């Protein structure tokens, strides 16, 4: 059995989307004659905890742990709320940022390059070099963000001449929050230099979307493979569908993902249609920025809001499968066209219609339309969005609200792991 060392930051009991990709790859790699050895921090500062995921770790995986020094842990002494929000990606609107928030973002962007886990690089290289040599490992994988983990791979590649696969769950310098970090000219150049060095040193680059592949192809001639996120066969008991017409958003709802056309369309439907007003509920599951909540209230939607906060992954799957309609929102910008949220794949197998809002030519728009799992709207298509919501509601009333997906099997976690295994042998 071939041994492969996987270096990742997010690992159970971490919750949220970052942990799912490699948790599932590790689950299925032994089926393809590959022994996963997973290297993770011993004492991480995870913004979200989901202890239920610990039970999903494969008993065939070897888990290595090493201590990490995290500035987020120290920063929480001054402001636990701000630290937790920033570390989980919830960055306040620039116009509403307090002095402390501005200072924390500047420190994060300019003193910790590429990110706040950079202090783990040197001790990890020292620890892993010894382990790799002792156990004759010839292939390593690094997964980012945090992109500092790619610097571990970079150093190990240079020192030991290993086969190195760099997995990018998200882009590096073009990701949406990068510009919010108040980078100096020096810091910006250093980020780009490190990105270029990683992309041109790794043997293979793995990305999650075709747009990220095209972006990276302008920066390197190294082979780039697309392996999307996917869905797993979840053993979750689900009862009947919600009795009310529930529109559910599951996952972090960041300030920049504020679809005012949706709030306006819903507000109009509530005022124009008494039956809709009586039956409609907006379910928010996960971390939600205060700006989103304030906007929802400003459109008169608070009486219809059910804000459940963060729940376990198993409970999130239950809500996906019993909600009447699922909401997916991405930031309206050029940089987010490449983002395919991991939850979209779980949405697609929930057998509930998806209403997705994002920038024109988004990769996930093509995914939803091609699998016949929902409808996609740009931020300028309020009337079409409103008409679709009304159509879904009328089908809900008639008990005919269903979807008929096609071509989903290619996105199963096991099939995606087989694709990964082909690069590792």
Topology readout:
Layout: E1 2-7, H1 20-28, E2 34-41, E3 62-66, H2 71-75, H3 80-87, H4 99-110, H5 121-134, E4 139-144, H6 148-160, E5 163-168, H7 185-201, E6 204-207, H8 210-217, E7 224-226, E8 245-250, H9 260-272, H10 274-279, E9 280-285, H11 290-298, E10 305-309, H12 313-322, E11 325-329, H13 343-348, E12 354-357, H14 363-370, E13 374-377, H15 382-397, H16 413-424
Parallel strand pairs: 1-2, 1-4, 2-3, 4-5, 5-6, 6-7, 8-9, 8-11, 9-10, 11-12, 12-13
Describe the model.
The chain is α/β, with parallel strands linked by helices and 425 residues long. The chain has 2 domains: 2-231 and 414-424, Glycogen Phosphorylase B (Rossmann fold); 245-397, Glycogen Phosphorylase B (Rossmann fold). It contains 16 helices and 13 strands. The protein has helices at 20-28, 71-75, 80-87, 99-110, 121-134, 148-160, 185-201, 210-217, 260-272, 274-279, 290-298, 313-322, 343-348, 363-370, 382-397, 413-424, and strands spanning 2-7, 34-41, 62-66, 139-144, 163-168, 204-207, 224-226, 245-250, 280-285, 305-309, 325-329, 354-357, 374-377. Helix 6 links the parallel strand 4 (139-144) and strand 5 (163-168). The protein is globular. The model is unreliable at 73-90 (pLDDT under 50).
The profile of the biggest β sheet is: 7 strands, parallel
Sheet/helix structural class: alpha/beta
Shape: globular
CATH architecture of the largest domain: 3-Layer(aba) Sandwich
Describe, in short, the structure shown.
This protein has 425 residues and is an alpha/beta fold. The protein is built from 16 helices and 13 strands. The radius of gyration is 22 Å and the shape is globular.
């Amino acid at each position: 059995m071939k041994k492969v060392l996987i270096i990742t930051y997010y690992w159970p009991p971490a919750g949220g989307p970052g942990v799912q990709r490699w948790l599932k790859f590790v689950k299925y790699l032994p089926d393809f004659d590959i022994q996963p050895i997973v290297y993770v921090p011993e004492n991480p500062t995870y913004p979200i905890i989901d202890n239920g995921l610990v039970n999903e770790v494969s008993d065939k995986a070897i888990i290595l742990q090493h201590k990490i020094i995290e500035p987020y842990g120290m920063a929480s002494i001054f402001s636990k709320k701000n630290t937790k929000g920033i570390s989980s990606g919830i960055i306040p609107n620039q116009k509403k940022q307090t002095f402390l928030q501005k200072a924390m973002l500047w420190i994060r962007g300019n003193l910790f390059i590429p990110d706040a886990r950079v202090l783990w690089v040197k001790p990890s290289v020292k620890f892993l070099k010894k382990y790799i040599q002792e156990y004759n490992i010839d292939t390593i994988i690094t997964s980012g963000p945090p992109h500092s983990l790619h610097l571990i791979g970079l150093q190990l590649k240079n020192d030991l001449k290993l086969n190195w696969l760099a997995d990018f769950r998200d882009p590096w310098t073009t990701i949406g929050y990068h510009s919010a970090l108040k980078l100096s000219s020096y810091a910006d150049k250093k980020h780009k230099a490190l990105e270029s060095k990683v992309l041109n040193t790794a043997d293979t680059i793995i990305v999650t979307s075709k747009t990220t592949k095209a972006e990276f192809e302008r920066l390197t001639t190294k082979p780039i493979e697309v392996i999307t996120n996917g869905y797993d066969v979840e053993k979750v008991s689900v009862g009947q569908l919600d009795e009310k017409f529930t529109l559910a958003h599951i996952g972090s709802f960041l300030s920049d993902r504020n679809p005012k056309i949706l709030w306006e369309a819903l507000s109009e439907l509530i005022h124009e249609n008494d039956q809709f007003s009586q039956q409609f509920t907006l379910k928010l599951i996960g971390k939600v920025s205060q700006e989103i909540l304030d906007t929802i209230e400003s459109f008169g939607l608070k009486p219809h809001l059910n804000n459940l906060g963060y729940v376990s992954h198993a409970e999130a799957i239950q809500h996906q499968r019993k909600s009447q309609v699922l909401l997916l929102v991405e930031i309206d910008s050029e940089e987010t066209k490449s983002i395919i949220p991991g939850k979209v794949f779980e949405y697609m197998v929930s057998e509930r219609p998806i209403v997705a809002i994002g920038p024109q030519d988004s990769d996930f728009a093509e995914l939803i339309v091609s699998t016949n799992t929902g409808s996609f709207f740009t931020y300028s298509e309020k009337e079409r969005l409103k008409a679709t919501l009304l159509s879904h509601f009328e089908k809900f009333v008639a008990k005919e609200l269903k979807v008929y997906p096609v071509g989903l099997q290619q996105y199963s976690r096991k099939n995606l792991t087989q694709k990964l295994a082909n690069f590792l042998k």
